[in-house]
TrEMBL record, chain A:
Organism, scientific name: Nitrincola lacisaponensis
Transglutaminase-like domain mapped to chain residues: 403-474
PANTHER family hit by this protein: PROTEIN-GLUTAMINE GAMMA-GLUTAMYLTRANSFERASE (PTHR42736)
The keyword Phosphoprotein is annotated on this UniProt entry: no
Molecular function GO labels: peptidase activity
InterPro entries in alphabetical order: Bact_TGase-like, Papain-like_cys_pep_sf, TgpA-like_C, TgpA_N, Transglutaminase-like
GO BP: any one term: proteolysis
Record keywords: Hydrolase, Membrane, Protease, Transmembrane, Transmembrane helix
Protein name, entry field: Transglutaminase-like enzyme, putative cysteine protease
Transmembrane segments: 65-81, 111-128, 134-153, 165-186
Tree of life domain: Bacteria
From TrEMBL, chain B:
Name this polypeptide is given: Uncharacterized protein
Organism lineage: Bacteria, Pseudomonadati, Pseudomonadota, Gammaproteobacteria, Oceanospirillales
This protein's UniProt keywords: Membrane, Transmembrane, Transmembrane helix
Superkingdom of origin: Bacteria
Membrane-spanning segments: 16-39, 45-65
Length: 661, 304
């Protein structure tokens, strides 16, 4: 036994100091990619200095030096972040604070401040990066912080590094199921005040105007646009037209949305089955949402425009999720007012003379029949046009040059030329931009649409039938509609030019493709069920609890919580079973005796206990006497005497049977 | 050899209380901040982190509780001291839970707390000092065991009775000279056995004699091991008499007597003690001194 002397209570152990260093590094590491270089240098310097102090080569810095560092760091922050109170500035401030505090940790109180701030910094990491890998990494980082917290409170003389880590992991393990319960049940309310997340990176995507070259430029990027989850079967590839914008104004070169009238959405007559699906849209920094041609209604917080596209109340700056129902077969706006007819046949008064001439020739040939004219246009394209990602640049009379000179183009060229010719023939027409196709993930049943799936087509209004989809690209390159853009363009130089290292360029078949699909599915599940849980919670709780009432919520929280904590309490507080079978036997026997009212005192020998019992119940004492004797014999017997053990065991068994009877 | 546990039933002395510490409230503040962050950025991963830490805090309650549960005072002994000093208690802290108990702090009100681990050693012996004021038996209050381990977020504590007492002697006071009372007459005789004043004789060394008295010079001359015999030329009986200062109050008189008893013991003189109700005949040695001091400590106390 050792004599324990008075120790300084407040000092940190040496292993605790090392744990503080590890915890801080682990928490700051994910932010290294964007933190200003001088902050990283300062952090590295402080860590190095603390290690020097730790190994006894340096002493703690003088207060004047510390003050100097604080002032310099504050000035640095002001310069780096230009006095704007952004999230980045706040995290940088906390990081600088961590680094400087690290320099002077010596007592418990210092370490606590450090670790609490480290936990806060750990949380802010998720505001910048939310991937599955990052979540796994942050679990490790938080484990390091908790280990550091344990090391703060342990004996200052303890040196082992692993001891706090073991205890921290033993504590975090039962916390995980409790965390899940809270995560499922805690009601998600909207933001209390508006915050501006600075995701300054420019995004590629559709814009509200379409000039030649705009859509083909998007094929340079494999950035995710959105994913669509279908409850049942997905639509056939030729029906996967995702409607985003309808462009109705033409200035001779580019198509724009044009002035929108205040009227409600065009009348939709659904023919055949509808499809219900869910869209998880990546942040686009634009207001429009994506829908399969053509949506029945708008999701909450969005509106249906007149030509049945969706527009959100706010810019989509975070990943959002919404449910939609669409009708693949439909009749849209069978009636067209005079104003609308005028708007949809509007063309600049001059320009593209050769195209106008060609149309009037065809009109004469078809004697004004719309369908014949359309067939003629498509046949014209089919005969001699090339569908390419990198068409030649077009000049002032873009339609003329495309139709008669270059004869090569991407979908926007065909759509633009088709709509122009129809309007020249006084047939209402408009351009629709959006996405076409998508990669079907067989493991998780969803479509992935990327920027290179961007597409443009035409809608033409036919008397009695309303707006009809007309995709001239299908006449030139029907494979574009049947195959995914990825498969179709893989050989072309411009495709994915902006993502030279994309896995998509390298992996197109075999088990690697399967693995990529699975990885994508995992990521998508992560986004849907974890990152976007607030969109799912309502339905999920409804399904699981059968209605959300306060009572059910409380029960759903308490029951699993009590189970986990009860299990933990049992693990922590149960009395250990004696390892020795003799001891177990004796314990059982004495419990049996105790039930008859005789409790052996802790400091009582078995012999004295039996003597005490004899005073009250000679019969019971008589049963116990052989046990006490055998026990005594064992105590004085050599440790190797197996017989003595056997005798005691036999005596206890006998006493037990006699007690039962 | 099989070893039997001291007790087979969970012996818990009293309740275990548990409350958050200041660091715990700080942690709650951190959780609130994290929750605000999560709500405002609608970020489910920060929600998850917040809930993980909240759950960890709940788990910490159980861990802090179980760190103390099962720890008990196995044994306690008290060491005597003089009034005004701190009485030393040797407390033996143990558990037979089979778990590790770390950073258990023992304290009495007003005493310096001591922190121990029950990890490598179980039970552990702790020296704890309790300040005393008055002579007599010092019965310590219940000792407070408390711990904030492992996370420092909660403090759990309990009180356990200390089954020991320490004897507190009167504070020795040097104020008076011993009066020459009836017994202290004139020259007195020579006391041969074990005085220490003057050298008188050499005797053959026998085991049990004080090694301090070995005549090393004689031994060096090769004449064998001898012990020097001293004779204390002194009064035969020095009496420490309680009634010598009738005008002084009791406690003061006891303090004076205590001082003289210590001084005479140090000088290895033979003295006796006369209290109104008891008399210790003159003697010397540690046992006598203890007897005398105990008598002084407990004089006039009811439950001595």
């Amino acid at each position: 036994m050792k004599q324990v002397s008075v120790k300084p209570v407040d000092k940190l152990s040496r292993s605790a100091v090392l744990w503080q260093l590890i915890a801080c590094v682990a928490v700051v590491l994910p932010n290294v990619v964007w933190l200003p270089a001088w902050v990283l240098l300062l952090g590295a310097g402080c860590i190095a200095a603390r290690v020097m102090i730790h190994t006894g080569r340096w002493s703690f810095p003088h207060w004047s030096l510390r003050l100097l560092l604080v002032v310099a760091a504050a000035a640095g922050l002001l310069v780096s972040f230009n006095r704007d109170a952004s999230l980045n500035a706040m995290v940088a401030l906390l990081t600088v604070g961590l680094a400087l505090k690290l320099l002077e940790i010596y007592r418990r109180r210092d370490a606590l401040v450090l670790l609490y701030v480290a936990l806060f910094v750990a949380a802010t990491v998720f505001l910048f990066e939310q991937s599955l890998l990052m979540a796994v990494y942050m679990c490790v980082a938080v484990l390091a912080v908790i280990a550091a917290l344990v090391s703060v409170w342990q004996d200052p003389l303890r040196e082992e590094m692993l001891r706090p880590l073991k205890l921290a992991s033993r504590m975090l393990l039962p916390a995980l199921p409790l965390m899940l319960v809270l995560f499922f049940l805690f009601p998600r309310i909207g933001p209390l005040w508006s915050v501006e997340l600075d995701r300054s990176a420019a995004r590629t995507g559709l814009s509200d105007s379409m000039a030649p070259g705009d859509i083909s430029r998007l094929t340079r990027s494999d950035e995710l646009a959105f994913r669509a989850v279908f409850e049942g079967e997905p639509p056939a590839p030729s029906l996967r037209y995702w409607r985003v914008l309808v462009l109705s104004a033409f200035d001779g070169r580019s198509w724009t949305v044009g002035s929108s009238s205040a009227r409600g959405a065009e009348v939709l007559d659904v023919q055949g089955e509808t499809l219900t699906y869910e869209i998880v849209q990546e942040p686009s920094r634009q207001r429009w949402l994506y829908a399969l041609d053509v949506p029945l209604a708008a999701p909450p917080q969005a509106q249906l425009t007149m030509p049945r596209t969706l527009v959100s109340a706010n810019e989509v700056s975070q990943r959002i999720q919404y449910s939609l129902t669409s009708a693949p077969a439909y009749q849209l706006a069978t009636q067209l007012s005079q104003a609308e007819r005028r708007a949809y046949t509007q063309l600049p008064s001059r320009g593209n003379p050769r195209s106008r001439e060609l149309v009037s020739t065809w009109l004469n040939e078809s004697q004004g029949d719309v369908v014949t004219l359309i067939d003629q246009i498509l046949a014209y394209f089919h005969a001699s046009f090339v569908y390419t990602l990198e068409p030649m640049a077009l000049g002032e009379h873009s339609v003329d040059e495309f139709l008669f000179d270059t004869r090569q183009g991407f979908c926007e060229h065909f759509a633009s030329a088709t709509a122009f010719m129809l309007r020249a023939a006084d047939i209402p027409a408009r351009v629709v931009t959006g996405y076409q196709g998508g990669e079907w993930n067989t493991t998780q049943r969803y479509l992935t649409l990327r920027q290179y799936d961007a597409h443009a087509w035409v809608e033409v209004w036919i008397e009695g039938q309303g707006w009809q989809r007309l995709d001239p690209t299908a006449a030139v390159a029907p494979e574009r509609i049947e195959m995914s853009a990825d498969q179709l363009f893989s050989g072309q130089a411009g495709f994915l030019a902006d993502s030279p290292l994309s896995a998509r360029r390298l992996i197109r078949q075999g088990w690697l493709l399967q693995a990529r699909m699975r990885y994508d599915a995992l990521n998508f599940a992560w986004q849907r069920w974890v990152l976007n849980y607030h969109h799912q919670q309502q339905n999920l709780l409804q399904d699981w609890l059968g209605g959300i009432t306060p009572w059910k919520m409380v029960l759903a929280l308490l029951v699993p919580g009590a189970l986990v904590l009860g299990w933990l309490a049992w693990r922590l507080l149960r009395w250990p079973q004696p390892q020795d079978p003799l001891q177990r036997h004796l314990q059982r026997l004495l419990q049996r005796v105790a039930r008859q009212g005789f409790q052996r005192q802790p400091d009582e020998t078995l012999n004295r206990f039996v003597a005490r019992v004899a005073a009250h119940s000679p019969a019971l004492a008589e049963i116990l006497q052989p046990v006490a004797e055998a026990y005594e014999q064992l105590h004085y017997a050599p440790s190797t005497d197996a017989q003595a053990r056997q005798r005691l065991l036999a005596a206890m068994r006998q006493a037990e049977t006699r007690l039962k009877s | 050899m099989i070893s039997w546990p001291a007790g087979l039933s969970l012996q818990r002395e009293g309740k275990i209380y548990i409350l958050p510490t200041a660091a715990g409230w700080g942690f709650v503040l951190l959780l609130v901040l994290l929750l605000l962050l999560s709500i405002n950025f609608e970020n489910n991963l920060t929600f998850a982190l917040t809930f993980l830490l909240a759950a960890l805090m709940v788990v910490a309650i159980l861990y802090t509780y179980s760190n103390l549960a099962g720890v008990r005072l196995v044994r306690a002994t008290g060491q005597p001291c003089f009034a005004g000093e701190a009485a030393g208690f040797t407390l033996q802290l143990g558990s037979d839970t089979g778990r590790e108990h770390q950073q258990i702090q023992l304290s009495w009100p007003g005493s310096l707390p001591i922190t121990v681990d029950l990890v490598e050693q179980n039970p552990v012996q702790v020296e704890l000092a309790l300040p005393t004021q008055r002579r007599g038996w010092c019965t310590p209050p219940r000792v407070k065991l408390q711990t904030v381990f492992p996370l420092g977020l909660f403090r759990s504590w309990c009180y356990q009775p200390v089954m020991a007492r320490a004897l507190v002697y009167p504070a020795p006071l040097n104020g008076v000279s011993l009066p020459s009372t009836a017994g202290n007459t004139g020259q007195g005789g020579l006391v041969v056995q074990s005085g220490s004043d003057d050298f008188s004789d050499l005797k053959r060394f026998q085991p049990g004699m004080s090694p301090q008295h070995i005549a090393w010079k004689v031994y060096a001359r090769g004449q064998g091991l001898h012990a020097k015999q001293y004779a204390a030329r002194q009064d035969l009986d020095i009496w420490l008499d309680f009634s010598a200062w009738p005008e002084a109050e009791t406690e003061l008189r006891l303090s004076w007597l205590c001082y003289w008893a210590l001084k005479l013991s140090r000088e290895d003189r033979c003295y006796g003690l006369r209290l109104p109700d008891q008399t210790w005949p003159p003697a010397r040695g540690d046992y006598h001194r203890q007897q005398v001091l105990q008598a002084l400590a407990l004089y006039g106390q009811v439950n001595s």
